[in-house]
Hints:
3-stranded mixed β-sheet; 38% helix; binds zinc ion; 9 helices; 13% strand; CATH 3.30.1330.130; elongated; single chain
Amino acid sequence: MAPKAGSSPLRLGRSDLRGDDEEDDVKPNRPIARQIALTAAHPRPRGEDGDDAPSLARRRLLGLLPTLAVGCVARRTGADAATGPRPASMPLEALLDRVVARVSDTAGSLAARSAHAREVTLADLVRFHGHPCDGLMIAARGLALGLAELFGDGPVDRTDLAGATNASVCYGDVLGYLTGARHRCYGSITVDAKLGDEWLLLHRATGDAVRVAHRPGVKPARLVEQEAALRAATCPSELIAEVGSLQRELSERVWIAPARELFTVERITFPYDPGKLRADVVKRDCQTAVGAP
Ligand SMILES: [Zn+2]
C-alpha cells in the first residue's frame, strides 16, 4: 500500500531509504574517520560518493588492505587461540557509513516539523547503542525495510510511529532510535517477550502497519549454539572470540545481501496499544510564519 500523500511535508527519492535492495552504495573504501565526521556534522548530500576521483578511491582502498589482511588472519585464528585474540572487524566497520533511513522530526519541543530530514547511519545507531552487534545490524536492516514499506519515497516520520519488539536490548534500541517511539510515559514501544526475531511498526496517521521478520536460517545455527554456551559460561576466551567472529560475519552479511532475501515484510493490523503522542511533537502540524530550522 502506498503511503498517504501529505503524510509528511518532505518528499525524498526512494533511493534515500536504504532498507531496500540497493547494494551499490556499500562503500568499503571510505575511511571510517571521514565517514563518522561526515555523518555526524554534515549530512551527506546525495551523489557525493560519485565525486571521489578514481585515484583517491584507489588510495583509500589500498589504505585498507593492511586492515583487511589483519582481519582475515584474526578471523581464522579467533576460534582457536587460547588467549582469545581480537576478532576481525574491518568489514563491519566499513559498513558503518550506510544510511539506514532518512527521518523527519519536529524543530523543537513546542515547534512544527523541521524543514529538513536527517540521515541516520549505522554509526549513529552504534553511538547510541554502544557496540556494533549483530542484533543492531539485523534490526537496522529489517526495520529499514519495514519503514520503507510504510513511508515509500518520504522520510520516516519519527513523530508518528509505534512499534513492538521482544526484550532484546539491541532490537529495542534500534527500534526506538529509528521510529522516535518511546516506552516511558507514552507507551508507543511495546516489549513483548513472546516475539521472535521480528519487529512490528505502526504509522498512526494512516493506520498502516507491518511486521518484519528475518527468514529462518539467517542466523547460523552454530552462532545460536555458541551464544547459548557463552551465556551459560563465565569468561572463556576462545568461546568469546568465536562468538564475536560469528556475530561479525552475520553483521556483514545482513548489510550486503539483498534485504528481501533475509527478511519478510507483511501488512498487519497492529495488535498492541499504539500509545500516545510524545509531548515534544504536539505542535508538529502548526503552520508557522517563519520557516522551521
Ligand atoms: Zn547489542
